[in-house]
Amino acid sequence: MAPASSGNRSSSTTSFWSVLLATALIASASTAAALLLLFPSRRHRRRSPPPHPQEQEQEPGGGYAALIGNTPLVELQSLSKATGCRILAKAEYLNPGGTSKDRVALRMIQEAERAGLLKPGGIVVEGTSGSTGIALASLCRARGYRCLIVMPDDQAAEKVHLLQQFGAEVEVVKPAGIANPNHYYNRARTCAQELGKEAVFMDQFETMANFHAHYHGTGPEIWRQVEEGFGGLRPDAFVMSAGTGGTIAGVSRSWKERREGGREVRVFLVDPPGSALFNKVKFGVCYAREQRERGVRRHRYDSLAEGIGLDRLTANFKEAMVDDAFRVTDQEAVDMAHYLLQNEGLFVGSSTAMNVVGAVRAAWEMGEGHTIVTVLCDSGQRHLTRFWRREWVEGGERGLKWPERPWTDLRFLRGGEEEG
Ligand code: PMP
Question: What is the DSSP letter of 175?
Fold first, then answer.
């Protein structure tokens, strides 16, 4: 009996310990599961889709529109070396139309189609400094719409030629202030009204389709590329100029809303001479000294930069979350463009050169070890007759110098912080 009783006692002791062990195992497994849910591993976190915003889906059915977006993110290695930061650049000039405006054009057309405004055989009308027009003209070919573009005559001639080759009707107007009915933006809107119901004014400056293209497209896309392509890094700063403000607004908002790890990304605006946004960001007043002088100047802005700079607050720029601004001079843009060709093999346009100057400034301001992202907006091939022509650069009233030897260091970057 004793052994039996002892056996009974030992079996009840065993089952007591088994129950205890099982309970402990279940408890620790559920604690581990709860911890995993609360603090997912770095690996796991990177694999799961970003909580907000979702990346824009590609248009079903392929074709021309499927070529838009998913552009590469490249490191500007010489600048990373020179600054001690990682300087990354989104190669938007590799979109099929040569700029990020392909994304905006597609979104504007899609929204107009969904709203029933744009029907087969309809006419797309836009006022543009060139890039958006080129993007729209190609898409109109692909979708069978007519395309009418109004643009100012102070842009590189190759943009007008391209528009005409792509089959757009082009009206070129004299540069004018936004209050003037002949400003290219106002003129385009009037044309659309005159053409009647078949015509749709795209209105890139004011439509939120522009913002959405970058909020759902460019912004999340860059974030993912930084994480996946650069060993789990996160962007610390975004640096961008504004033409409509769509890019800086969409990217800044999509990044700032993440607030992952309690670290907020810093956003820097790059502003060319004559633009009123620098003062808006720095001092809260949308103003540029050159606005007063515009009457006696040939150019709307006293800058050679094309496609950027604003003399008003657009609906798109109002969405931007900007921390600080850099004024970049035309000479700095010329020097940086030559530096990038010499040291990176990149042949860029004027707005890109300004963006990259801003990226270096941001790196210097934030200190070593940060990841700074900017945008390669378009290629130098769109600027052969102006920004990349020595006679034109040195010819005007701007007193600019063509670098005798391409720069191999960053000594050409100077000042530009004080209001001018
Ligand atoms: N660079 C170029 C060459 C452009 O055409 C534009 C758009 N006008 C920009 C930069 C600025 O982009 P966003 O309109 O998104 O401010």
Answer: -
pLDDT over 50 at 32, yes or no: no
Residue nearest to atom 3 of ligand 1 (CA): 307
Length of the chain counted residue by residue: 420
What percent of the chain shows pLDDT beyond 90? 73
Rounded distance from Cα 371 to ligand 1 centre (Å): 23
pLDDT at 415: 46
Distance from Cα 309 to the centre of ligand 1, integer Å: 9
pLDDT digits (tens, 9 = 90+) for 200-232: 999 999 999 999 999 999 999 999 999 999 988
Evaluated on CA atoms 387, 393, 395, 398, the torsion sign reads positive
Active site residues: 101
Residue nearest to atom 6 of ligand 1 (CA): 307
- Average pLDDT of the residues in 329-333: 97
pLDDT score, position 78: 98
At residue 294, the pLDDT reads: 52
Q: Where are the domains of the chain?
A: 65-94+214-394, 101-201
Nearest residue to 105 (alpha-carbon basis) of 94, 117, 115, 97: 97
Distances (CA, A) of 196 to 127, 200, 276: 17, 9, 34
**Domain 101-201 classification at class level:** alpha beta
Q: 65-94+214-394 and 101-201 share one CATH topology?
A: yes
Helices (H) and strands (E) in the chain, counts: 16, 10
CATH code, 65-94+214-394: 3.40.50.1100
Q: Is the pLDDT of residue 35 over 90?
A: no
Contacts of 141-149 with C-beta under 8 Å, sequence gap 24+, read 141/166, 141/167, 142/63, 142/64, 142/65, 143/109, 144/120, 145/109, 145/118, 145/121, 146/121, 146/122, 147/123, 148/123, 148/124, 148/188, 148/191, 148/192, 148/195, 148/199, 149/125, 149/188
Return the closest-CA partner of residue 129 out of 321, 368, 305.
Answer: 305
Edge-to-edge order in the sheet of strand 146-152: 169-173, 146-152, 123-127, 199-201
Ligand 1 pocket, residues with Cβ under 6 angstroms: 99, 129, 131, 241-247, 306-308, 349, 351, 377-378
Q: Name the token pair of 221.
A: 């896309």
Lowest mean pLDDT among 69-83, 239-253, 387-401: 387-401
What are the tens digits of pLDDT across the range 167-185?
A: 999 999 998 888 999 999 9
pLDDT of residue 93: 98
